[in-house]
Design brief:
Chain lengths: ~270, ~120
């Protein structure tokens, strides 16, 4: 019978689709799902109703189920990487489209200005920087559901990202001032401090306050020992350092509030 | 200090209807699909993807369990795995129906319910 042949064909396709489920799930339910699929179509065929629409609906329903199971089967580490990866790809589309559609043109009054022109290396560098920042945020923020804690971690991550980006792009102090290496080490010091604190709010806030202090100590060291190469000037360098110090401190205060809230709850 | 009673979230419509379908007898997957469609007057339909996704979660939650694999005479000679409701599943179903009963009772008090069907409480 024609409908029996069509049902066998659909069942074959459905059986192949089911293999896209995670292996454990397929072993558990694959055979039954295929049976149920065929049962539904057989009933439709016996009633003289079209099997095609129902087959397609069940195929779509199963595709949705596969996506749900696949996402659920991801390990925690995979989930930690998925969001930063998606965010990185989305952010890199911005410079890509700026370049593709010439949204930023070179300044005709400045011959040295080449407009917005990223090389492959620029995309790779920025991609690595954004992904690392996103991953670090996901890794640390996942330790607490507290909004203040997560906001503090977000601000600290943003501060670290901007510090590294500005430093590598134009240099904080001068062109080859050794103090710039000290600035680059700060996010690493922050991670080490957070790790020693086991990412607990109390220890993390102390680490961030220490970073705020270090942010202001570095220009003092630079002006004392490496004052020869001090562009763009003492006041701008100290001013920019103060902005970053305030950001570190802001992150520390947010996480400190989270710590106080936690201590208050424990004291109940 | 006031004692906080943890609230158990409501069952999803799919889980509720699967428990209803299994409340009277054990069934295989296709039997559950048909019973759910009948119980809900066709309002709740689920494909195999949704059905077995729910069955998997319900087994993991202890609400149902797999029974034996046997032949359904009405469905040919293929052996099928049957499912049956557990004690925990029966309690969850009873709790959910009580929740519905309480809501309908409030609606009746406020004259919000136009007509009640055969399962009027």
């Amino acid at each position: 019978m024609r409908s029996e042949r069509i049902i066998r064909q659909y069942r074959g396709w459905y059986g192949r689709l089911l293999r896209l489920y995670p292996a454990g799930y397929y072993a558990r339910f694959g055979e039954q799902m295929e049976q149920t699929f065929a049962d539904v179509l057989r009933e439709r065929g016996e009633d003289g109703r079209s099997v095609n629409r129902y087959a397609l609906w069940m195929l779509a329903d199963t595709v949705r189920g596969i996506i749900k199971q696949k996402v659920g089967a991801l390990t925690i580490n995979s989930r930690l990487m998925l969001r930063p990866a998606i965010m990185t790809a989305a952010l890199l589309l911005i410079p890509y489209f700026i370049m593709k559609f010439n949204l930023v043109l070179p300044d005709p009054n400045r011959p040295e200005d080449q407009g917005f022109n990223w090389t492959l290396g620029d995309f790779v560098f920025m991609g690595a920087l954004v992904f690392t920042a996103g991953f670090v945020f996901e890794f640390i923020a996942s330790r607490s559901r507290d909004l203040l804690y997560r906001a503090g971690v977000a601000l600290a991550t943003l501060t670290a990202f901007l510090l590294v980006w500005v430093n590598l792009a134009v240099g904080f102090i001068g062109d080859d001032n050794p103090a710039n290496v000290l600035y680059l080490l700060m996010p690493l010091m922050g991670l080490v401090g957070a790790g020693f604190a086991r990412f607990k709010p109390e220890g993390m806030s102390r680490t961030l306050f220490a970073l705020a202090a270090a942010q202001m100590v570095i220009p003092v060291i630079a002006v004392t020992f490496w004052s020869a190469d001090f562009a763009p000037g003492v006041a701008p360098v100290f001013g920019l350092s103060a902005i970053f110090a305030l950001m570190w401190m802001g992150a520390g205060l947010l996480i400190q509030q989270a710590s106080l809230k936690l201590n208050t709850k424990k004291g109940m | 200090m006031a004692r906080i009673t943890p609230t158990i979230p409501p069952l999803t419509p799919a889980v509720l209807h699967i428990l209803l379908a299994l409340s009277a007898e054990e069934r295989h997957g296709y039997g559950i699909m048909k019973q759910v469609q009948f119980d809900s007057d066709g309002k709740v339909t689920m494909g195999p993807g949704t059905l077995y996704g729910s069955l998997g979660r319900m087994i993991d939650a202890g609400l149902i369990r797999e029974s034996e694999k046997k032949v359904d005479p009405a469905m040919g000679d293929e052996r099928r795995i049957y499912y049956r409701i557990t004690g925990a599943g029966q309690k969850a179903l009873a709790r959910e129906l009580e929740r519905y009963r309480a809501v309908v009772a409030v609606a009746r008090e406020r004259h919000l319910v136009p007509k009640l069907r055969a399962y009027a409480v």
